[in-house]
Design a protein that fits this description.
By secondary structure, the protein is an alpha+beta fold. About 45% of the residues lie in helices and about 25% in strands. α10 runs antiparallel to α13. The longest helix has about 50 residues.
């Protein structure tokens, strides 16, 4: 069988194999032979190219995990591999030379990309611009998109786009998309876990502050922001707002260098709050070390502890007072009894007394003149009066310490104030050292507000308030105490107002400490105020508030629950 180029040669020459004229055309035969060789070479090249294309196509179709899509310069799809068919549900013949990649993208994403490109002043010349605008300055770009398959299912993909170039001419674009559904699910789980962890951290009732290895604040929880609203101003800075923690810088460095936890209990801040503090290291990896500062506000617990201690001290004072009262009461009883005996014997009402006087040869008239002349009976009466007053004081002390009589009646506050003033006027210390009678006491005597209370206990509260205030009265301003009282919701409030230079800068908690010295040289204490607070808190479910009104003016609000 003749080859195609042999038949072509015969047609060109016009003679068969045995035509004698062919020998006259050697040059033509040489060219024909050259042509035959060239045609054979091209046929072989085409066969090789066909095999390579087949091989390349088999490689592309064997890449099931990637959707490989090529387009021409206008965006029309020219290649759609098996992986793309599996991922998107379209056959290659459905999209090649027919569709653009916009077929597989959501309108929402394209619209967002359109807004982005407008902000960048990039013209929307064709459908490909949404994907290839980054290729202007680079050979490839990688972005995350959402594909939509033939059935409408959304598939998150990572799309890598590059130029197709041959002989320095760009023929189109090649996109390789990988399904990242598993990656996205994992990222979403991580986000959910982080959100859950953040919620847990933010709902913790104590402050957590994260410091990096450069000792700069990098993160804090919601409790920290609530506790220290200004903390946001110290982002990426050293937390100087915690300078009330002794040697903070040193403690942070020590925490970085060791695995131990630094613990400090009941540390007092600049605003008077108390915190339990823990400082420890957290290590994500060997190259990243951070420090956590945990601050638990225990101010309420400290107050409770102080209240327990204060209550125990008051009970201790009560027990001491009760013991002293008994010890004083016994000799007082002896004094009064012997005074009665002495008075009876000096009155000579008994025969034995008269006989004893006769034996001394002293007349009754002479004795009476002596007793009257030396005011012996007046002295005896004075001793009796003082002893009775001391006995009454002891009785009051015993009644206070025993707290047996808790009977409450409706009492006018004016009567309570008058009773407390009377007690103060008979107090020797207030009279001699503080000239109580010279202090102006102002209150509305016509205000008939009443309170349901035990008269003795509240009178004792007001008496103690007077004593405490008098000891702290101003020496520069007028020596005056103003008292007012009113109802406020379920409370009856009695207010004391006065001027004082010694009250500024003192925490109210210190004022409630029974044996807290006012200064290094003063031996007076806050026992009166502490006692008043104890009675109001425990017997009337109330409170005492100190209000600094400025310019050395202070007000105490005594709140009694109705």
């Amino acid at each position: 069988m003749k080859k195609p180029y042999e038949e072509l040669r015969e047609k060109i020459i016009g003679f068969g194999d045995f035509n004698p004229k062919k020998s006259y055309y050697p040059e033509l035969q040489e060219k024909i032979q050259s042509l035959e060789n060239e045609i054979s070479s091209k046929i072989a090249l085409q066969e090789d190219l066909k095999n390579k294309n087949t091989y390349l196509a088999s490689i592309l179709d064997s890449t099931y995990d990637f959707a490989i899509i090529a387009t021409d310069m206008k965006g029309v799809i020219t290649l759609f591999n098996k992986g793309a068919e599996i991922m998107l549900g379209y056959k290659a013949e459905e999209v090649i030379d027919r569709e653009t990649p916009l077929l597989f993208h959501t309108e929402d994403e394209i619209e967002l990309k359109k807004i982005e490109l407008k902000k960048l002043n990039i013209p929307l010349d064709d459908d490909l611009i949404y994907f290839v605008y980054k290729l202007k300055d680079s050979l490839s770009s990688v972005q995350e998109w959402t594909y939509v398959d033939k059935n409408g299912k959304k598939i998150p993909v990572e799309l890598s786009i590059s130029k197709i170039i041959a002989d320095d001419n760009q023929l189109g674009f090649l996109g390789i998309a990988k399904d990242i559904t598993i990656k996205k699910d994992f990222e979403e789980r991580i986000k959910r876990q982080n959100r859950h962890l953040n919620n847990v951290i933010n709902t913790m009732p104590f402050s957590l502050i994260l410091i990096n290895s450069d000792l700069k604040l990098i993160r804090f929880n919601h409790s920290a922001y609530t506790e220290f609203p200004y903390i946001k101003n110290f982002q990426d800075k050293f937390p100087v707002f915690l300078n009330w923690i002794d040697d903070l810088n040193v403690k942070l460095k020590n925490a970085l260098e060791s695995d131990s936890t630094i613990i400090s209990s009941s540390v007092k801040s600049n605003d008077g709050c108390f915190y339990n503090i823990k400082i420890f290291k957290v290590e994500y990896d060997p190259d990243e070390k951070n420090i956590v500062i945990s601050l638990e506000n225990v101010s309420d617990l400290v107050k409770i502890q102080e209240m327990v201690i204060r209550t125990e001290k008051i009970h201790g004072i009560s027990r001491l007072a009760a013991g002293m009262a008994h010890e004083i009461n016994n000799p007082l009883a002896g004094v009064l009894q012997n005074l009665q005996v002495l008075e009876n014997r000096l009155s000579l009402k008994s025969k034995k007394d008269i006989d004893a006087l006769s034996m001394l040869d002293i007349g009754q008239e002479e004795l009476q003149k002596y007793l009257n002349g030396r005011s012996i009976f007046d002295l005896i009466e004075n001793i009796r009066t003082a002893s009775v007053k001391a006995a009454d004081t002891v009785k009051t002390m015993l009644n206070f310490t025993r707290m047996k009589d808790n009977t409450k009646t409706q009492v006018f506050i004016n009567d309570l104030i008058k009773n407390a003033i009377t007690l103060c006027q008979t107090d020797i210390v207030l009279k001699k050292e503080h000239s109580f009678k010279e202090i102006e006491i102002v209150y509305d005597s016509k205000n008939n507000i009443s309170i349901m209370c035990n008269f003795n206990s509240v009178a004792h509260v007001l008496y103690n308030m007077f004593k405490f205030i008098v000891e702290n009265l101003s020496k520069k301003h007028s020596r005056k105490i103003e008292i007012s009282y009113h109802y406020e919701q379920e409370y009856t409030i009695i207010s004391f107002r006065h001027y004082s230079e010694t009250m500024s800068g003192i925490f109210f908690s210190e004022l409630l400490e029974p044996f807290h010295l006012k200064n290094d040289t003063d031996v007076s204490t806050n026992l009166e105020l502490s006692t008043a607070y104890f009675i109001i808190k425990n017997h009337y479910n109330g409170d005492i508030k100190l209000i600094d009104e400025g310019e050395n003016s202070f007000r105490y609000d005594l709140k009694f629950h109705n």
